[in-house]
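Researcher: Here's a chain I'd like modeled. Treat it as a single chain, no partners, no ligands.
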Amino acid sequence: MDLTLVSALAARDGLIQPLPFLQRRAEKSSATDTSSLADIGQEEYARLKNHVQEVVRQQMNLEEVARSRDPVIRNRFKSIVLRAMRDLDVRVASLAVPALVQRLFDDILGYGILEKFFFDPEVTEIIVNGTRVQIMKRGRRVFVQERFESVEQARQVVERMLAPTGRRLDLANPRVSARLFDGSRMMAHIAPCAVDGVLATIRRFRQDITPEMLLKNRSISREVLDFMRACILARLNMVIAGGTGSGKTTFVNVLASFIPHDESVVTVEDTAELQLQHPDVRRLEGRPPNIEGKGEITLRDLVKDALRMFPDRIIVGECRGEEAFDMLQAMNTGHPGSMTTIHANSARHAINRLVNMVQTAGMELPRDAILDQIADAVDIIVFILREKSGRRRLDHVVEVVGPERGADGIIRDVKLNVLWQYNPKTDSFEWVAKEFKRAEILAEKGGWRCPYLS
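Model: Modeled as a single isolated chain. Structure tokens:
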């Protein structure tokens, strides 16, 4: 039994008097002061930190360090800190001990000055650029007051983030993409790629985004949301398009919550980000090549694997290349109701992006054949964006009507029909279509009857 830990907990709860090594010197005493750094000073904190760091190095192996967020490991770390305080005669008020332990954990096993931002639900992006830190909160990027002491310290924190993922960041591999413990996605670079020594961009995904939250944030209207739910129930194939940080992944998460629970879903992602609220989800994640350039698992490989897993629907987190061809094949061959996201500036631009991506698959298909496949496979394209104010919202929804042929009979484009359009003057979403090709399907299978057509 760790008597030091038990004593500290008992003192915290008022069961016994604090042990001498936990007490603050009388001349600095303040019953309500919980600032450990003010208690011991920077020099004494550095001495304690170095001691704890050395003990951790001796007593914890790499696997345990990688599992630093395990409650058992955290308790071991706390015990090490309390012993170190006793051995070094570091005296602080019992109320200040938890803050001191947490600060040491952040600096030694955690993410240092970044730690607190991982537990702020409103922070959606964390950027480390050299020693400076920038966050995105409520849609706005701001620099925070905290800074790393050096580029080396910043790099050490980034490497601690990567440790549990098995990814490496060194001169031979100065750029890496990884998924962190909470599902966040990190893209990190070091010199020579990063001019300022280290550059890490961490995209966090809020767990509390629900259909109701989208409505509260005015990202969508109740009428459009009901329409989108009907599209999911009717198993229409959908493409979610938008720019970087526009909320495509979040939107897919919300839409997937409408998928009936008796259907099976397979997700395919380069770095797993989707967090579908569904009981039957099988997740596949790609893998980059190792340092020898071997072992890569591409999205195209995984989409092909997904087709052999007999799911009801396939969701590709983001189509960026040749996997678009296989995604269209999935939509056309027994997997209606599938979804994917792509980077595009509009629904029309999404068509061109799909064509370009399919052409990279090396199938030597002519453009008109690709357009024909897109017209057959895709039913609905949703375009979303992020405003300068930071608000992420739907901008327009279109249905794919079919191939558009020239006078010579060759397919020149894909005909689109704009259904919903955001009106900035009224800050509302309006139905603008005079006809709707899939009206009967949505009424029959989705339970949505269009009230806007005569």
